[in-house]
Amino acid sequence: MVLSHIPAQLAAAEIAEEYKVKAAFIFKMAKFIEWPANSHTDFGLCVLGDDRFGKEFDDFESRKISSLNIKVRRYNQSASVDKGCNILYISESKRPFLSEILDEFKSYPVVTISDMRDFAERGGMIELTSGKKLGFIVNLKSATKAGIKIAAPLLQLATVIK
Amino acid sequence: MKINKILVSTLIIAMVAFSSSSLADDVTSYDDLDLADLLSLEITSVSKKKQRLTEAAAAVYVITAEDIRRSGVTSIPEALRMAPGLQVAKMDNNKWAISSRGFNAQFANKLLVLMDGRSVYTPSYSGVYWEVQDTAIEDIARIEVIRGPGATLWGANAVNGVINIITKNSSETHGGLVVAGAGDEEKGYATLRYGGHLGENTHGRAYLKFNDRDSSYAPALNSSAGDDWESFNAGFRFDGEIGKFNKWTFQGDIYERDLNQTVGSLFVNPNDPANNPPNFASPYQLLNIAEKFDASGWNLLGRWERNLENDASFNLQVYYDHTERSELILDQENNTFDIDFQHQFIPSEGHQLIWGLGYRHVKDDFNNSYGVRLLPNEASSQTFSAFIQDEISLLNDKLRVTIGSKFEDNDYTGFEFQPNIRAVWLPKEGHTLWGSLSRAVRTPSRIEDSGFLVTSIIPQFPAPAIEVPTSGTSDFESEELTALEFGYRVQPKENLSVDLSLFYNEYDNFQTFETTSFTNAVIPVFPFVTTVPSQFIFDNKSEATIYGLELAMDWHLKEWWRLKANYSYLELSIELDSASTDTISPPVSAGSVPKSQLYLRSAMDLSDNWQLDIWAHYVGKLKQTSFSNPQSIPEYTSLNARLAWFVKENIELSVTGNNLLDDRHPEFAGERYVTPTEIERSIYAQIRWEL
Fold first, then answer.
1. B276-282 long-range Cβ contacts below 8 angstroms, 24+ apart
2. Right CATH number for B2-22+50-690 from 3.30.420.10, 1.10.1370.40, 2.40.170.20, 3.10.50.40?
3. Which of A51, B110, B219, B526 has the fewest beta carbons under 10 Å from its own?
4. Among A11, A96, A97, whose Cβ lies nearest the Cβ of B172?
C-alpha cells in the first residue's frame, strides 16, 4: 500500500546529502551554459513536481548567474511553468508525464534537468545519474534545438548523446 | 509521584549530555568544490520509489506540523478532528471515542494507531486509551490518516483505518523549545525540549511535558463532572548514521496520568452480606462515585534502516511497551514485545517488491473487580505475521497495480489471510484515479475471548438477586471486512486540490450479544414472574454494511490565505442472522456515527507576524452511542479561533478559543461507568519560544 509499516523518514526539512551535492552541481554547471538573448530580469531556477532541494536552492537566491539574480520558482503542474525559467528541474514525480512536458518545452530556451532514469534518452537535456558517484548525460540535440549552448569543459565531463 | 522524579531527572541528564557535547553547526558546503570535484564525491542515492500521497491508491490525509501548530491543539486526539472520515468525540474531559468510517464507541476497536511505528492499542479491548497517547506536540512531523483497510501491510485491526503519528527526526529539532500556556479548561501546561548534535553523525533530543486540565460539566449532577486530570510525559529520540548506508533511531517515552472520573454506576456483589439488604433506589449499584486513578507506562523502540544497491533497502524495528492502569472497574497491565523486519527491492524492471516478517508477544495481568473479570487474569499471546506485496508499473508509470497479502497466525483465531489489490491511474497531470478491493479482519480482544462482565443485576428479594453476565468465549471469531474503494484526486489549478473517496464496506461475523440462557424473575416494574435472559455471550451473528464518501479540499486562495474543507457522509445498516436474539448492539452500531460531518478552516497570515486561524466543524446527530447509556446526542457545530503574534522570529504568543458558540455541549456518551458530560467552551493563551 502507501507508506511502509516502518515510518519512512521523508520529512521535508531533511535534505538528503545527494541533493545537496546535486544542487551545488547545478549551480556550478550553469556557468558553462549560454542562453539565447532574452528579456529576463532574473535567472529563473525552477522546480517542477516534488522538491527535494528545499533550502539548498533558496540559498542561491542571493547569488547571480550570467549577471542576473537567481530566483527560485516551484510548480506542481507543467501548465503553470513560467517561460521566465532558465533552468527547469523536472522531478521524478513527473515521470508519467515526461513525454508531454518535454514536448511542451522543446523549443523554449530552458535547460531541462532531471535525475529520472532515461531522461536524456527521452529528450531531456541534462540527466543527473547517481551510482556511487554523481555523473551526467547531456542530450546535445535537445539543447541545440532550443538554442542552448553548452561549453566544451562541461561536455568533457559528460556522457554525450548526439 | 515517584515517576515524576524519574521524568525530571531523565530530562536533566539528557540536557547535560547535549550541552556538554559539541554543538558546532554541521556545515557541509559543496560551494568550494569545482565541477570535477563534485563528480568525484561518493554519494548515497536515496530510494527513488518514494510514494507520493497524491498518487496513493488509498484514502490518505496528512495533518502537517503546520496544521497542528496553527490549530493550537495541546493533545493528539484533538488534532485528529482535522482529518476527514474520522469521528472524534469526547466522552468526558479525559476520554475520547475515535473511529474511522463508523462504529465509534468508548471501546472502538477497528482502528490501528501507530506512534513512530509502535502500535498503541490496548490488547484487552483492541481500542486506544487516547488520554495516555502523547508526546511534545511541536515534535510531531505529521499525522497520516488512512481511512479504509490497511491490513495487508499493517495486519489485523487495521480494519477501518490506520493513524500513523510520526515525530521529527532529531536532526530537525536542534536547540531549545519552551512552550507554556494557561486558560480555563487548559489550566496550565508546559513543554520543554532540547536537542542537538551528539557527535558527527548523531543527533538527539529530549522533552518533558506537563498538562493540568479542568473538569467538564455533568448535567445529571448539575455540576462539575469531576474529570479533571494531570499528565506528565518525558521522552527522548536519537538518530544517527553509520557509514553511508546505515541509519538508526532509538527512542523512548515514559508517562504518568493522574486522572479523576465520576463513576456513574458500579455493580456490587449481591452475594456479599455487606451489600444486603440492597439500597432501594439503586439496588446493588453504587452511583456517582468520585474516583481518582492512575495510568502510566513506558516504551523503548529501536530501528535500523540499511540502504542496499539498486534502490533496495531493509528495515528492522524492535520495541517494548509497558502500560498499566488501575481503575475501580479493572486494574490492567500489558507488556508488548514486537519485532518487525521489512525488505524492499526491484526484482525486475517495473516491479517493486516489499516483504516482511513480524512477531508480537503480549503479556497481560489483570486485577479483576466484581463487575469486570478476565479469566484467567494473567495470560500471554503471540502473533506471527508475514506479508508480501508487489507494485507493478505499467504504461510508462501512468498505471500502477499493487497486489499483496498479509498472513498472520494468532493465538485466538489461528491463521488469517488478508489480501488486497489496488490500482492507481494517472490519466494526465494533476489527475489521479484509484480503486481497491481488500479483505481485513479484526481479531478477538482478550475480553471477547475470556472476559466476564456483569451486565445487570435483578433483585429478587427475599430470594437471591439474579446476576446477568456477558461472557467472552474462545468460539468468538474474527470480524471480517470486504472493502471496495474508489477515489479521485484532482488539482484543477496550481493552488487548488480536491480529493474524493467513495467506499463500500461489508462486514461478516459482526459482533453480537447472544442470550445463552433464561431464567424466571420478578421484574420490579412489572411484578409478575417473567422469563428474562440470564446470560449473554459475545458472538458473531450479524452482518454490517457501510457506504459513504469523503471529500477534502485545499485551496491556497492567496499567498496569505488558505482554506481547507472536508465533508464526510456515511450510511450504515446492520442485519442480524436469523438465529440472533441480539437487541442490544444493532441500535448502538448504527446510531453511534453521524451521517454527515463538515469541517472548514481558514488560515490567514494577516501580516508578516500576525496569523489568524478560524475553523468550524459540524457533527450530525448520534442516536445512541452506548449500550448502557441510551441517550441521543444532538447535532452540534463548534467554532474555534486562534490568533498568533510573532513578537520575534523565535517567540510566538497566541490565544486559542475552542467551542466558542455555546457554553457547553455533549459529544458522546460512554458506557455505564462513565458519567455523561458536556464539553465546555475554553480559552487559553500560550507562549512558544525557540532558543
1. B277/B461, B278/B459, B278/B461, B278/B465
2. 2.40.170.20
3. B526
4. A11
A80 vs B: CB within 8 A:
yes
CA distances, B168 to each of B51, B116, B172, B173, B204 (Å) = 19, 10, 6, 7, 11
All domains of chain A in start order, with CATH = 17-161 (3.40.50.2300)
Cα B288 to Cα B90, B186, B268, B490, B551, distances in angstroms = 19, 24, 14, 53, 42
Residues in chain A: 162
Q: Give the model confidence (pLDDT) of B321-367 as tens digits.
A: 999 999 999 999 999 999 999 999 999 989 999 999 999 999 999 99
Nearest C-alpha neighbor of B434 from the set B48, B49, B52, B47: B52
Kindly list the domain boundaries of chain B, sorted by start residue: 2-22+50-690
Question: B622: which DSSP letter?
Answer: B
Indicate the residue of A9, A17, A52 with minimum beta-carbon distance to B43.
A17
What does the DSSP assignment read for B256-300? EEEEEEEEEEEE--TTSGGG-SPPSSSTTEEEEEEEEEEEEEEEE
In chain B, % helix, strand, coil (3-state, to 5) comes to 10, 60, 30
Q: What is the pLDDT of residues B430-440, one digit of tens each?
A: 999 999 999 99
Record the cell numbers describing residue B431, joined without a space.
489527475
Report, in angstroms and rounded to the nearest whole number, the Rg of chain A calculated over CA atoms.
15
Predicted pLDDT of residue A7:
36
CB B93 within 8 A of CB B228: yes
Check CB contact of A73 with chain B, cutoff 8 Å.
Answer: no
- CA distance, residue A49 to nearest chain B CA (Å): 10
Q: Do B317 and A78 touch (CB under 8 A)?
A: no
Which chain A residue shows the shortest CA-CA distance from B400?
Answer: A96
The residue type of B163 is I
Distance CA A157, CA B532 (A): 89
| pLDDT confidence of residue B12 | 58
Query: Where are the extended beta strands (E) located within B346-377?
Result: 351-367, 372-374
* Chain A CB within 8 Å of residue B310 CB: no
β-bridge partners, B171: none
Q: What number of other Cβ atoms are within 10 A of residue B243's Cβ?
A: 10
CB A2 within 8 A of CB B58: yes
Q: Which residue has the higher pLDDT, B123 or B301?
A: B301
DSSP characters for B228-262? -EEEEEEEEEEEEEETTTEEEEEEEEEEEEEEEEE
Peptide bond into B462 cis (omega under 30): yes
| Single pTM value for the model | 0.90
Q: What is the DSSP string of B306-332?
A: EE-STT-EEEEEEEEEEEEEE-SS-EE
Q: Do A134 and B53 touch (CB under 8 A)?
A: no
Amino acid type, A29? M
- Reference A23, options A48, A68, A64, A55; nearest CA is A55
Residues of A in contact with B154 (CB under 8 A): 5
